[in-house]
Amino acid sequence: MPEPAALTERSALAIAPGERVLLVGDSGSGKSTLLAALAGLLEGDEVDGDARSDYLAFEVVNEGPPGRAGLVLQDPASQLVMARIGDEVAFGCENLGVPPDEIPERVRAALVAVGLGGLPLDWPTERLSGGQAQRLAIACALAMRPRLLLLDEPTANLDDVGAAEVVSAVTALAAADPRLALVIAEHRVELWRGLATRGIVLSEGRIVIDGPASELERRDPIAALGSGPLVRPERRFPTYRGPQEGPNVGNRRPREQDRAAAGLVARATGLAVGRDGTVLQSGIDLEVRPGEAIAITGPNGAGKSTLALTIAGLIEPLAGTVTLAGRDDPFAWRSRELLPIVGSVFQSPERQFVARSVEEELSVGPKALGRPEAETAEVTGRLLDRLGLTRLAGASPFSLSGGEQRRLSVGTALATAPRLLVLDEPTFGQDPRTWAELVRLLREAMHAGTAVLVVTHDRQLVAALGARELRLAAPEPGQTGGNAGGAEAVDAAGSDRRPRAPGHRAAPPRSAPSATAGTALLLDPVARLGAAILLAAGLAASVDPLSAGVALVLELALTPLLRIGWRHYWIRTWPVWLASPLAGLTLLLYADPAGRHYFDAGLVHVTDGSLFAAATLALRVLALALPAVTLLIGVEATALADSLTQHLGLPQRFVYGALGAFRLIETFREDWRQLALSRRARGVADSGRIRRWAGSAFALLVVAIRRGTALATAMEARGFGGPGPRSRSRHARFGAREVVLLIVAAAVAAVGLGAAIAFGAYRPLLG
Prior knowledge:
By secondary structure, the chain is of the alpha/beta class.
């Protein structure tokens, strides 16, 4: 969340039950801060004048308990706590103490309301697209049935169908509860025209207009602030028909060869794209010419961002070829070779920042290309002015609001005047004035011969750029992407032109790992953890190969009883089978031949040389590691947290706080990957490995701190840590199966020890 903008005494307001408030204003005007205050998440000294957060929150929710104000933040991915969507939606209900038998119905209804009802409840949250994660965050708020629902740009990352579903869901919720108060911060005013009854306009943390929502557009409130008219963009921007505007801010003048249609900027042939081995789209054929715009559209999760990054040379194609500026395979190019050809804007802007200030951020690309200092300063100053960021030139890019970060990210791509701009949702978070300025900048770039490839749900942007449209197929239910109908090209008006790729049969839906597969919930996580500890402790108490051998045989014999598929078992345990002989080989190569020095500490009893010692060590690695890995296969973090709090009585605040932190850590891998891609796109990935690693590590630290802050805010907004007792939607069971598991684990360890004692090979570690 950006630094709180001060809310002055003119910002004091009261919102009555049943009011539907539409909150608009310039990007960075304080909308997100006001929502946080309404949710009761700001301390008193963070809000100036009469607008105290306690007053605002309790005035609206009639002094309800924490969590009665449902808040959905701008970045949905940073507010997800649980690993599965069902648990995620249930989390807020549990914090509010909702009766357990009522929670499942709330979860299902909320997911259906936002268009995620087709996914299984155990679908991993990490496999959701950005738009799907946004819908899930809204479902979490809906399930709490708050008295006050606060939505921060809820439709920003959604396609038209998804946006309509969200508006419909919120409208239905409001109709079902006439006393529900709504505050919606949104730039897409037209979506909420039928629901909103009151309009509030903010400027620099001050309320400048407060009145009927129907008068917002007629009263032209943003114009009163000197920021341009608050009208729908299509009223001011007819469809782009050709080069009609001046040179772009990157100092690249129109050239005859740029205007010539013969030279292709980019070409994709038979392209298949995806991630982690999953094909999202295939059979894509595309040609991009100088000065034209192509919009990649389609439903959330269809692979639009992946396709764009593949064409930009940042992700390797799964099949087919990509050609940029007449050269093949841009994925193999060096970073600085890519920079003058392609300027990329990622879906999450903060992942692509590499400098300490806004001004330095805009100069990174030109400096990497060796542009003259005077030219770099001129381009940077002009972009700061055009993007409305001059007053923030010395600020950290990470301290900007979401809309300001988005404008800065577009500016970094424009600064190098590339031949191709690849933009992912460039108008996200923009008010009408900044939206219009971004469109002007892109039109000027097109006039100069730059091609624009834009991933967007913004229909007005498609029309304003006169873009050809490449519409990707809808994903199949239960999939994060698909190619049910390939892709087709349509013109700027949306009418079908001709297929750009042949249709393909849809792959069957890929199910997420089931929470009940194998032993994930058939055996309680605490019991499985206890069994692993018993086996390890029993073997650690002895130091001979005989006990390890007997225990290993028993473990392997009992493994089929756990009902784990052998393929799944091998995928999870192959590192152990590989590490075991490697450990023995290392000992054989480097230990004392007699083994005496290495084993004087008593790790194993050796009598006849290093070969025997190596085999013994390999055997013990298997005996110690295999049961731990086997027993913990499929243990899901949320189930473990439930079990720890219910069986061992650990504090719920500590356990679920740690669960949220671990969930955050799981995102670091994707964050690191995105940061590496961004450094490549920014032309700074060709430096030394240590310098490159240090830069990415610092950026990851900043992103982690911001994500942690957002996660803590989201958890608090959902009632976590409140004074009342939590309810549990899922009860951890500790029954006969768990008792048998612990008895068997203790018996295996005892048999191993007994065999060692019987043959006189037992030698305690501390004896």
